[in-house]
Write a structure and sequence with these properties.
Length: 642
């Protein structure tokens, strides 16, 4: 049947254009079905060349990938000649339309930096340099073994020389830490310094990360750690008080807040044990000052003899047994008028119970004498203070007692009679619990320490019992000059104090040696020590051959830019705190590995000053230690002065 005239005229005007959609469909179908086959043929031809680039690791250094009819070549050739030879072989293949070269040449990396970044829940990107002596696949196996099952690697790290020993073990250690971080978490290995940044997935991951970083692989140190704790919806902070001691529980936003809370609790406990269950987490509202919150909880805890002070859901509540009847209205007034900004008032659920036991404590310390606990009335308070002041006129007497009923009979007489005994002590306390007195402390003289039990028994009222435990203060140890020199030589013979490259920060392994040296200085007043900081070893710069420069130009790469050295402003080294009888495990903060242009010229002097500062804080006198001449590269040096 003939077409209508209008349709025929339209087809005549369109001409051959009417067939283009059908041609396009045919082209797309042909490409869809034929492209995989073309790519497979291109890669198959390239694989023959790949097989000829095997290395000592058993893995070829060449990798090829089809991109349509193009063949992309990647990897790091042992040298320029080998790279050009491989490119020529690939160019001679029939299947590829062209060869796209992304080939490099193995060089020495200084510093040797490798990093792993979490790019998604199940993907990690590897960048930087990997050891040329370790195959790419072998390293990826170790890294993926430390990551969560099913994690995909995007590995663009390039083979290079200059890796530290046991690089694969350190890389696997960092990869395992990366498993506890969210997207954007980054782990970096710069020579022998490990660094981490990112946000922890949850509290168990954060705690595990902190524990693992306390024990890095042998030969490696921990550098900058910028891991943000997780955010907690149910943010709370609890101070629980009981006769046996205090418990801190809940969360704090930073380690500084933990230290602050423990100091407050220790002062409140007055010698009783403090159990720290705090964990670091985010979630405290921005408008709440953690220092003010901790102090406020402590003020409320002073008003209870047993119970809890709790910050939860933005409000502070207090419950338990009040220290006395006045404590209940005081707690309500504090919550009404003394709250920190951003904190709401919670409930006050305090019961007033008879004090059991009835306690009074008089404590003498270096900063003064403190009277705390309860007394039945103001008259007894004045009687106790009057018994103290004439014998302790050089020290402040601080009264922290409260008024409460229930005092045992004879309390006033017992306190007035025993309080003067503190005048014979360098430090100590008289602790009254109902009708029992405990007299403890440290005396300047052995004779007065031996007479303490007899002196206590002589002044106690009838019906009261007491126990004295006073020890003489041990005199400062002194050694003869010959022993001092011999002990110094023995201490230094076992010392091997080496600073991280480019850093004046003290490493964790320094502290035992420095503490022993400070103790020796205290026992040997005539000892004079010169402390010398070492310089860093000078690293040889890799030579660039003419062939390498030509190859870089051939590949379109610009020659490496050499920046003029700039003077970096050094940060003063921070020595750790003074030596303590029970020093917690130090948390070394190794400095980030700087470029040579960033290393200060007076680095040996800075290192010597850091060592001297620590020795002074640990008890050595200023005239006993001083910086000496710069030492040779290697370890710090200590010398006896005449």
């Amino acid at each position: 049947m003939p077409l209508p005239d209008a349709t025929a005229r339209a087809l005549s005007r369109a001409g051959w254009l009417a067939g283009l959609p059908a041609v396009a469909l045919i082209w797309v179908a042909a490409t869809y079905w034929a492209a995989p086959g073309i790519g497979a043929r291109v890669e198959a031809e390239g694989a023959e060349v790949v097989a000829g680039t095997g290395t000592e690791t058993g893995e070829p250094w060449l990798r090829v990938e089809a991109r349509g009819r193009d063949l992309v070549a990647r990897g790091e050739a042992p040298d320029v000649v080998e790279r050009e030879s491989i490119l020529a072989q690939l160019a001679a293949l029939d299947a590829p339309r062209r060869v796209v070269s992304e080939l490099g040449v193995v060089e020495t990396a200084t510093p040797f930096v490798w990093s792993a970044t979490r790019t998604g829940p199940a993907s990690v990107a590897l960048e930087g340099s990997r050891p040329v002596e370790v195959g790419r696949r072998a390293l990826e196996v170790q890294v993926t073994g430390a990551l969560a099952s099913g994690t995909r690697l995007d590995d663009t790290a390039r083979a290079a020389r200059g890796a530290p020993p046991d690089f694969p073990g350190a890389a696997a250690f960092l990869a395992a830490r990366l498993s506890g971080l969210g997207k954007g978490g980054r782990a970096t290995l710069s020579d022998t310094v490990l660094s981490l940044s990112g946000e922890a997935l949850d509290m168990p991951a954060y705690d595990a990360l902190r524990a693992a970083l306390a024990q890095p692989p042998d030969g490696f140190s921990v550098g900058r750690v910028e891991v943000v704790p997780p955010r907690i919806a149910d943010y709370r902070l609890v101070l629980e008080r009981a006769p046996a001691g205090l418990v801190l529980d809940g969360f704090v936003p930073a380690e500084a807040a933990r230290t602050m809370a423990n100091a407050m609790a220790a002062k409140l406990a007055e010698g009783a044990p403090v159990e720290d269950r705090l964990r670091t987490a985010r979630g405290l509202p921005d408008g709440v000052d953690v220092a003010e919150l901790v102090a406020f909880l402590g003020r409320l805890a002073e008003l209870i003899q047993a119970g809890r002070v709790t910050y939860a859901n933005g409000a502070v509540s207090v419950s338990g047994d009040a220290v006395d009847a006045d404590a209940v209205p005081e707690a309500r007034a504090l919550l009404r008028d003394g709250r920190p900004a951003g904190v709401a008032a919670g409930s006050v659920d305090l019961a007033v119970r008879p004090l059991s036991p009835y306690r009074v404590t008089i404590r003498r310390a270096a900063d003064g004498v403190t009277v705390s606990g309860h007394l039945p009335d103001r008259e007894m308070r004045e009687r106790v203070l009057a018994a103290l002041r004439p014998r302790l006129f050089r020290e402040p007497v601080i009264d922290r007692t409260r008024i409460a009923d229930g005092a045992p009979s004879g309390l006033g007489a017992a306190l007035a009679a025993t309080a003067p005994l503190l005048a014979n002590l360098a430090a100590g306390e008289i602790a009254v619990s109902d009708r029992t007195v405990r007299f403890t402390g440290e005396s300047l003289y052995p004779e007065s320490a031996a007479r303490a039990p007899e002196a206590l028994a002589a002044v106690l009222p009838g019906g009261w019992s007491g126990k004295a435990a006073v020890a003489p203060r041990r005199p400062e140890e002194r050694r003869d000059p010959a022993t001092c020199r011999a002990d110094f030589s023995a201490t230094m013979a076992a010392a091997d104090l080496r600073f991280p490259a480019g850093s004046a920060a003290l490493a964790a392994g320094f502290y035992p040696t420095l503490d022993a040296l400070a103790a020796l200085a205290r026992a040997c007043p005539a000892l004079r020590i010169a402390v010398s900081g070492p310089a860093d070893p000078v690293k040889p710069q890799p030579a660039v051959t003419a062939g390498q420069g030509e190859a870089a130009e051939t590949a379109g790469a610009k020659p490496p830019k050499v920046d003029a050295p700039t003077e970096a402003k050094p940060e003063p080294a921070k020595a750790p705190g003074a030596a303590r009888k029970a020093k917690p495990a130090p948390k070394p903060e190794a400095a980030k590995k700087p470029d040579e242009s960033e290393v200060p010229a007076d680095l040996p002097r800075q290192r010597a000053l850091a060592l001297v500062e620590y020795l002074l804080q640990a008890g050595a006198r200023p005239d006993q230690v001083a910086p000496g001449p710069d030492a040779a590269p290697g370890r710090a040096a200590f010398a006896l002065l005449p």
